[in-house]
């Protein structure tokens, strides 16, 4: 039987697929990094499972997280999003995607890519932890708290320290798969 992190206490294929193939895997694609930042912000006060189930709805509703399109959203578009039953219809969270798109595009220009900016918080290489149990995994760290402060200073919304740490886990800046999990690097076979 395949051992997974204890937080995957389900047989839901979508959840297992996310754990097995995305969580903790380094992401360098700007569009996907932006998508995950928006989804993590949408998760605030909710469970990741709630957002994961709505992910495709979010992609459709927000033009597949193309920041160049999002920055031009009109009040009519925002109103239609607030009426969209397939996403979390929180006015502030919806508005934050537009705000974050503007900041994202500014960061891209300044740093050459959003990836360059966001990965600089971990010196451009993933932090691999060696937790025995999920109880050891922190909800935030000095790095995520610092990232939160910088993102807020750079105009981003819904980017508290805990959200930033979840984001770091989601995009592989931190690998928090527990030691018994088959996704932990100590179990991954290197291909020759």
TrEMBL record:
Its catalytic activity? Hydrolysis of alkylated DNA, releasing 3-methyladenine
Q: Give a yes or no for keyword rRNA-binding in this entry.
A: no
User: Could you cite one Gene Ontology molecular function of this protein?
Assistant: metal ion binding
Q: Which domain of life is it from?
A: Bacteria
Q: What's in the keyword line of the UniProt record?
A: DNA damage, DNA repair, Hydrolase, Metal-binding, Zinc
Picking any one GO biological process from the record gives:
base-excision repair
Entry-linked InterPro entries? Adenine_glyco, DNA-3mA_glycosylase, DNA_glycosylase, Tag
Q: What is its EC number?
A: 3.2.2.20
Query: Pfam families under this entry?
Result: Adenine_glyco
**Binding site residues for Zn(2+):** 5, 19, 177, 181
UniProt function note: Hydrolysis of the deoxyribose N-glycosidic bond to excise 3-methyladenine from the damaged DNA polymer formed by alkylation lesions.
* Protein name as catalogued: DNA-3-methyladenine glycosylase I
Q: What's the source species for this entry?
A: Psychrobacillus soli
